[in-house]
Amino acid sequence: MVSSCWCWRESRILSFAAEEQKVHPDPHRDPDVDQLRRFSLEELKLATDYFSNENILGRGGFGKVYKGRLEDGSIVAVKRLENEPTPDGELQFQTTTGIINRAVHRNVLRLRGFCMTTSEKLLVYPYMANGSVASHLRERPPSQPALDWPTRKRVALGSARGLSYLHVHCNPKVIHRDVKAANILLNEEFEAVVGDFGLAKLMDYNDSHVITDVCGTAGHIAPEYLYAGICSEKTDVYGYGIMLLELITGQRAVDLAWIAAEDDLLLLDWVKVLLRENSLEALVDPDLQGNYIEAEMKQLIQIALLCTRGSHLYRSKISEVMRMLGGYGLSERWDEWQEMESSDQELGQGFQPFHFTGDSTENLPPIELSGPR
């Protein structure tokens, strides 16, 4: 388990950092989908007790996920895609299978195999014993302890490592496009694993961005992507910043937006005001019961705000985010942003954040919204 050690540098900079592990794909591994294990439909029916409702782990935009036990006794998660013979469904299956098979990193969900027949499309993943970050933040039973502060810090670091691998070490680059707490899974050691590549986009390593159809989850979509279809690594960084706010507050972005709207503020402006006024108690998840280090919390909020800057031109890359989590450069980046804000230099350089106060998509362009899958 990668543990993150927070320590002080120059009395005010924290460190999330454990030594960064560089994990590279096996150069001898054939990336073709055909090299994955191909399960028979009967195997997966038996594993899931014929897709029993009692084995449903979750459901989302493309289908349901079931817990299963293979013949060798191993526990898996079986994602059963909706059986509608649409071009989008076929493309999603091919995209997901190909992308996940390319990615080999401890903080990225591996694909064990798949099943494809004329009537069924299924993906088989390792079972993540501790579910998703979102389930711990918002769906835990009273008997289950809340995610403590050290675990939330590890989630922040581990998910950043997974995204950094997808952006930097994969060729073509992988843009996840749906970064949120519901898509960050937790293994047995509560290590973060980036999952669900159903909306992922491949991008040439030399391209700075692509123009593409908008998809994702309301509240997690970067402004430049929502309004102009500009998709890049910075799209994921924005979603990551919103995910950090989920970790900090325990709440969904849409719910936070409702609270901010009561003060006639956009979500991110509301967060800035609370940080400036040192009103952390209005922002921090009450489930933490005050068991966190205030300076560390403030700095994680700063990182979240730097990740969600309205202009993607000024938004950090995820590799820089990792350095800030490790205690390098955060103070300088924050001071630089404050100077830009005070002189209005960033105004007009990007898109205004989308003002949302609910799950409604009636005012959005045609997009595909995803739920936790």
UniProtKB/TrEMBL annotation:
SUPFAM superfamilies: Protein kinase-like (PK-like) (SSF56112). It is a single-pass type I membrane protein. This is non-specific serine/threonine protein kinase. Transmembrane segments: none annotated. ATP binds at residue 79. Pfam families: Pkinase (PF00069). Its EC number is 2.7.11.1. It catalyses: L-threonyl-[protein] + ATP = O-phospho-L-threonyl-[protein] + ADP + H(+); L-seryl-[protein] + ATP = O-phospho-L-seryl-[protein] + ADP + H(+). It comes from Hevea brasiliensis (Para rubber tree). One of its GO terms (molecular function) is protein serine/threonine kinase activity. Its main location: membrane. Belongs to the protein kinase superfamily. Ser/Thr protein kinase family. Residues 51-325 form the Protein kinase domain. It is found in: Membrane. Keywords: ATP-binding, Glycoprotein, Kinase, Leucine-rich repeat, Membrane, Nucleotide-binding, Receptor, Repeat, Serine/threonine-protein kinase, Signal, Transferase, Transmembrane, Transmembrane helix. Gene3D superfamilies: Phosphorylase Kinase, domain 1 (3.30.200.20), Transferase(Phosphotransferase) domain 1 (1.10.510.10). It comes from the Eukaryota. GO terms for cellular component: membrane.
